[in-house]
Write a structure and sequence with these properties.
Elements: H1 2-12, E1 17-22, H2 24-27, H3 36-51, E2 55-60, H4 63-71, H5 80-103, E3 108-114, H6 116-120, H7 122-136, E4 140-146, H8 152-157, H9 160-171, E5 175-180, E6 201-202, H10 207-210, H11 225-237, E7 241-246, H12 252-257, E8 264-266, H13 275-283, E9 289-292, H14 294-303, E10 312-316, E11 324-329, E12 335-340, H15 345-351, H16 359-363, E13 377-379
Parallel strand pairs: 1-2, 1-5, 2-4, 3-4, 5-7, 6-8, 9-11
Antiparallel strand pairs: 7-8, 9-10, 11-12, 12-13
Helix pairs in contact: 3-5, 4-5, 9-11, 9-13
Length: 380
C-alpha cells in the first residue's frame, strides 16, 4: 500500500492544471432539482484549489437534469427536441447556481458551451484554449458544458465524460478528476451481500479492466463506467492522469490533490503527446479508414515508420487529402492508429499495394512518398 500511495503522491505532485468533471448525480437531488448546497460545497473546494495555486476548469453536467427539475419532469426525455428544450431551460439555472456560489468567494463562473465542431476546427480549438488560459489569469472559474441545445450528435450519443477528456487534452492538463456517485472502479459489482473494493490504481486499461465497467447510470445521467474508462484511455494515452471519485465525499478535491488514498487513479503513459498529436489522435472524427498488412503494422508500431502505399490492403469511406483517417489491421479490423492523409480515398484505392516508385506511374503524379507521414500519425 505504501508503494501505491508513494506513486500517487509522486504523480499528483506534478499537477498544475486540473479539469474536474461533475456528474448529474452529484449535482442534483432525487427529484431532479439542482442541489444548491452541493454546488456551494463544490465551489468552496474549487476556490480552495485555486488558492493552492492550481488552474481549475469545471466540466459540469446537469443542464438536462436541472431543466427536468424546473419543469417537474420525472423521466429523462427521449426525443431530441425535448432534450434540447429541457437543456435550454436548465442551462441558465445551472450556470446561475455556479455563479452565485463562486461570487461568495470573489470569483465568477465563466460559461463555455462547446460542440464537437469547436474541437474539430483547428482555429476554434486554439481559440478555446486561449480563452480558457486567459480566464485562469482572472477571478473566474471556467465552467464547461456541451452545448446541448444545438449539438445533435453529442446530446443523443455523447456524454460529459468524453467532453472532459477532450478538455483535458486541449489544455494539456495533468489531471482529470471525474466526480461521480460511486467511490471509484470496483473490483466486482457491489451488492448488499458483496464486499466489493475500490481499485486504488489502474496502470493499464486492459480488456479485464473494461469488464469491470458495471452500469451505475442514473435516470438523469448519460454516461456510465464504460464512458469513464473511455475517457481514462484518452487521457492516460496522452500522458496525463485521471481519478474517479465520489463527488459527495467530504473535501474530496483537496484530499485528491494532497495524495490521500481516495478513488481510483489511472496512471499516465510515460511519454506525453504533443498538443497537435492529441488533436489528431483523439479529437478529430475520422472520415474513413484504411486496412494495412502485418508488415506495415510492424513498421508503424515497432519501428516508428510512416505509412506507405505498399502496405495498404483496402480503403473504406470517402475522404480527401488532409482528412483524418483510421488505420486498421487486416485481421480483426481493430484501429491501431490515426493520421492525416496525404492522398484522397480515390487515389489510395488506385495506389494501394504499390511501391513508392510506382505511384507516379499509376496516378500520373506523386505528391508524397508517404500516404501518412509519421509526424502526422498517432499510434493508439
Amino acid at each position: 500500500m505504501k508503494l501505491k500511495d508513494d506513486l500517487r503522491s509522486q504523480i499528483l505532485s506534478k499537477v498544475k492544471k486540473v479539469v474536474i468533471k461533475v456528474g448529474t448525480g452529484v449535482l442534483t437531488t432525487e427529484d431532479g432539482y439542482v442541489d444548491k448546497r452541493q454546488i456551494q460545497g463544490l465551489a468552496e473546494q474549487v476556490v480552495e484549489l485555486k488558492k493552492m495555486g492550481y488552474d481549475v476548469v469545471v466540466v459540469s453536467s446537469g443542464a438536462v437534469g436541472s431543466g427536468m427539475g424546473e419543469l417537474g419532469i420525472e423521466k429523462r426525455p427521449v426525443t431530441l427536441p425535448e432534450l434540447q428544450a429541457v437543456a435550454a431551460i436548465g442551462q441558465s439555472k445551472l450556470i446561475s447556481a455556479y455563479d452565485d456560489c463562486f461570487k461568495l468567494h470573489g470569483y465568477h463562473a465563466a460559461q463555455i458551451l462547446l460542440t464537437r465542431e469547436d474541437f474539430e476546427d483547428r482555429q476554434r480549438y486554439l481559440n478555446t484554449c486561449n480563452t480558457i488560459h486567459t480566464l485562469f489569469q482572472l477571478n473566474a472559474i471556467p465552467v464547461v458544458n456541451e452545448n446541448d441545445t444545438i449539438s445533435v450528435d453529442e446530446i443523443k450519443f455523447g456524454d460529459n465524460d468524453a467532453l472532459s477528456a477532450l478538455v483535458t487534452n486541449l489544455l494539456n492538463a495533468e489531471l482529470l478528476i471525474i466526480l461521480s456517485s460511486v467511490d471509484g472502479l470496483y473490483d466486482k459489482f457491489p451488492t448488499g451481500k458483496s464486499k466489493a473494493s475500490v481499485i486504488s490504481i489502474v496502470d493499464n486499461i486492459s480488456e479485464e479492466i473494461r469488464q469491470l465497467a458495471f452500469d451505475f447510470k442514473t435516470k438523469r445521467g448519460v454516461g456510465g463506467m464504460q464512458t469513464k474508462l473511455d475517457a481514462a484511455s484518452v487521457v492516460t494515452n496522452a500522458g496525463e492522469a485521471m481519478i474517479i471519485a465520489n463527488g459527495r465525499a467530504d473535501g474530496v478535491l483537496k484530499k485528491i490533490v494532497q495524495g490521500v488514498h481516495i478513488g481510483t487513479l489511472f496512471l499516465p503513459k510515460e511519454e506525453k503527446m504533443t498538443s497537435r498529436k492529441r488533436w489528431i489522435g483523439y479529437t478529430i472524427k475520422p472520415k474513413g479508414r484504411i486496412c494495412i498488412d502485418d508488415g506495415a503494422m510492424h513498421a508503424l508500431r515497432d519501428k516508428g515508420k510512416s505509412l506507405l502505399a505498399s502496405g495498404i490492403v483496402s480503403v473504406e469511406g470517402t475522404f480527401h487529402k488532409g482528412d483524418t483517417i483510421s488505420i486498421c489491421g487486416k485481421g480483426n479490423g481493430a484501429i491501431i492508429a490515426r493520421g492525416l492523409t496525404n492522398y484522397s480515398s480515390e487515389e489510395i484505392e488506385r495506389i494501394k499495394g504499390c511501391s513508392t516508385s510506382h505511384i507516379a506511374k499509376v496516378l500520373g503524379y506523386k505528391l508524397y512518398d508517404e500516404v501518412i507521414h509519421r509526424d502526422n500519425m498517432v499510434i493508439l
